[in-house]
């Protein structure tokens, strides 16, 4: 028994060391979520392209996506770059899957080699054959992709029914005075779709007019570096904000209109009261009384035609004499 078990101890110890090493080894760094969002934004606009972007002119990331294949990884490609007048330098490739079922290869250049306004040549070749897959010449200042603007606020203007919008430049953006913005305006239940308004370079507020009263609007803003010194891509849209615009009826005009209506109604009532007798006679005319034909009919005879002899007109030139207790 002892002779059979003794040789197993070295193997078991070695296996334990392997397991411990795997447990203690730091996990691979996952891709930066912000980089993932920006890469997805660019590939949605320009799929199947070799793309590069910088956030602050002190960095540069280049990448491409392709269908996942067994056994294909960063070692199958060679990425190199060259600044004007300098030798070629290698750039280490990384790999990660995407949410669309593809695989993304990317490389991040050192800060020392990210010079603006200088031509930068990029080259990707197959490691086995040396054949070229991608080759581009770019200027870093022309591939800027900023973060979305922050802190968008909307409020009603004090007068005129306008809407005032304010926001902050993208966090960490270089040269905020050279950033241009675009505002997206959409009305609730509107059939015409959203409208877009471009803002002058460096402005971080705008005043909107000609909006429909009593309507809920949603606003978003995005940014990009201004040409011609810079170029690049529109950022993602900021977080949206909503606002219900004021009614088209001015409260002052509405109040004055109500006062005027009340005054007119009061004048009409006073006019009716001053002519109430005339109106009463026209609406309810009086019934003719026989008192004018039979003197003393109501005062003396209490309306009794059978008392005394009363002459009753019965037609032109004809009269009827009534005697007490007589029958017609």
Short structural description:
20% of the residues lie in helices and 33% in strands.
Entry keywords:
5 helices
User: What is the arithmetic mean of pLDDT?
Assistant: 79
Radius of gyration: 48 Å
What is the helical fraction, as a range of percent?
10-25%
Structural class: alpha+beta
* Sequence of secondary-structure elements: HHHEEEEEEEEEEEEEEEEEHHEE
* Strands in their spatial order, largest beta sheet: 1-2-6-5
Explain what you see.
The chain has 328 residues and is α+β, with helices and mostly antiparallel strands. 20% of the residues lie in helices and 33% in strands. It is built from 5 helices and 19 strands. The chain has helices at residues 2-5, 8-24, 33-45, 251-274, 276-283, and strands spanning 51-53, 61-67, 77-83, 89-91, 94-97, 102-108, 119-126, 132-139, 144-145, 150-156, 163-168, 179-187, 195-199, 205-208, 216-225, 232-233, 241-244, 310-315, 318-322. The strands form 6 sheets. Strands 1-2-6-5 form a 4-stranded antiparallel beta sheet, with helices on one face. A 4-stranded antiparallel beta sheet has the order 4-3-7-8, with no helix packed on it. Strand 5 (94-97) and strand 6 form a beta hairpin. The radius of gyration is 48 Å and the shape is rod-shaped. The model is unreliable at 1-29 and 317-323 (pLDDT under 50).
